[in-house]
Target: Transcriptional regulator, AcrR family
Amino acid sequence: MNDTYHHGNLRQALIEAAIPMLKAKGVVGLSLRGLATELGVSHGAPYRHFKNKKVLLEAIAITGFVALQESCVKAALNFPDDPRRQLYEAGMGYIFYVAKNPEVAELMFRPGLNPQQSTPELCQAIDAAGASLAAIIENGKHKKLYRNHDTRDLVLTSLSTVHGLAMFITGGILIDSTLSENEIRMLGRKVYDILLRGMEG
Model:
């Protein structure tokens, strides 16, 4: 067995190896034993980091929420005085992440991953991503750009729109899945403009 994985990096290696296995075999085909074999460690080694497959799936989902949070933070930092641009760039960053990692995106909102029944780490990742998006929307409300709706409702509306568009693109549903990056940006701009008119109207 491979002894090169120490306690600190086997966990990350398992998550990274799980994503392509998830793509190839789906949730049913993903297994901790299979990952152990692929990484050349004992079959018991993964269980020191994930007590079962559900916890592993949650760890994979966390990477998606972290990506969403990072997209929001990056947009906020790059366009501090332009809440409209912040919201657009945060959304496009998430869309391009989903385009590369559709399996992770599907896990993020999978019915079986209920925050009320999940690990504290997943709950924290969801809260952090939501807070980052809420901060962008609060910035827009502060500048009197958006209707005085509850911020939570605007977060839900924005994320539902962006996530839905991302899944349509990756799944080829109603949209050509071979769109170029520029074409995706143009499509995102059209959808964003409609969303913004509703939020500002």
User: Anything to note?
Assistant: The mean pLDDT is 88. The chain has two domains: 1-51, 57-200. The CA atoms of residues 114 and 123 lie 9 Å apart. Helices lie at 10-29, 32-39, 53-78, 83-100, 102-108, 120-142, 151-171, 181-200.
